[in-house]
Amino acid sequence: MPNPSILILPGDGIGPEVMTEVRKIITWFGDKRGLQFDVSEDLVGGAAYDKHGKPLADETMAKAQEVDAVLLGAVGGPAYDDLDFSVKPERGLLRLRKEMDLYSNLRPAQCFDALADFSSLKKDIVAGLDIMIVRELTSGVYFGEPRGIFEEGNERVGINTQRYTESEIERAARSAFELAMRRNKKVCSMEKANVMESGILWREVVTRVGKDYPEVELSHMYADNGAMQLVRAPKQFDVILTDNLFGDILSDCAAMLTGSLGMLPSASLGAPMANGRPKALYEPVHGSAPDIAGQGKANPIACILSFAMALRYSFDQGAEADRLEAAVEKVLADGVRTADLLASEGVEPVSTSQMGDAVIAALDASL
Ligand code: NAI
Ligand code: MG
């Protein structure tokens, strides 16, 4: 069996800085745990535009289709703000998601005890929180036709269309139920079946798919109530399944329950490849943070936890993913903080590379 392959796309701004720390961790798993990966690296976003005149070269796209997992840093920055829409850095990321057909976006919202004070909610509401939002990523209102701004009489009308086929709902639902089987066997599906036909179909299809997973407890909730429940009592949820638009909003809301943008990983998964692994892209939720880029201040944990997700969902190394997450937890419990995690004055922040080294030391200590 060939080694599993990883394509690293550091991108722009703090992307390369946080990815350097992830590379150390990938090397650690090779040296200390015998997990060898074939790692290659390429350009995306503004960095790719600078070299190729577009934010993702065709060769890079082709490589992304072949590897077992893509790890991406972040794209964009002020230097590229005036570029034409078609070559903006974000288009590189969108092209990856679109052409790899990554329909299932996994956004964990997990509260590390050491950071529970960081939440805008009361500590006992978020302490121990561990939920996963599964957002359908390739269809729905962001893609539905007709769309556009049209003349209608003597004024203009802006149109977007929420559109879901049964098969699109089904595959997203399956991915949520499969995930639930590996977690606490609970799925809450959110739509607005009370006012939207696409929501009625969503609920119907999810219910049907759920019959294939009799062990999983399925519930349904209107998405507006879901938003309220997320801030009222988030621990009632385990896996939340929802569409592209509601998922965009609900996942950002859930994320902020747990603190800093520098802590939040994500995975975007597609259909299984010939080797059984899903097409997969792992990336931190944050952007390229131009305000702190190049200063060694960025928190690499979001990107490190994205690699932990790769271990779990692409490489079937759940125990090693647990090890990495526990190492992060230990570092935080020990009080190691990058600048974004500083709640009070008087604590000296560590740099990006010091945080990476602290995670490596905690990994060593786990052996
Ligand atoms: P951002 O996530 O880059 O930054 C928002 C704030 O959070 C900034 O103050 C930043 O310093 C801080 N921050 C973010 N990640 C951090 C980390 N790891 N450690 C410490 N602090 C961190 O979002 P913003 O400012 O809206 O966008 C900046 C650029 O990034 C734009 O060009 C935007 O288009 C792009 N972007 C790219 C994304 C991606 O690649 N997936 C996602 C969001 C934005
Ligand atoms: Mg968003």
Automatic annotation (TrEMBL):
Pathway: Amino-acid biosynthesis; L-leucine biosynthesis; L-leucine from 3-methyl-2-oxobutanoate: step 3/4. Its main location: cytoplasm. Binds 1 Mg(2+) or Mn(2+) ion per subunit. InterPro entries: IsoCit/isopropylmalate_DH_CS, IsoPropMal-DH-like_dom, Isopropylmalate_DH. Coiled coil: none annotated. Its cofactor is Mn(2+); Mg(2+). GO terms for molecular function: 3-isopropylmalate dehydrogenase activity. Residues 5-359 form the Isopropylmalate dehydrogenase-like domain. The record marks Y142, K192 as: Important for catalysis. It is an enzyme of class 1 (oxidoreductase). It is found in: Cytoplasm. NAD(+) binds at residues 77-90, 287-299. Its EC number is 1.1.1.85. Homodimer. Belongs to the isocitrate and isopropylmalate dehydrogenases family. LeuB type 1 subfamily. This is 3-isopropylmalate dehydrogenase. It comes from Leisingera daeponensis. The lineage of its organism: Bacteria, Pseudomonadati, Pseudomonadota, Alphaproteobacteria, Rhodobacterales.
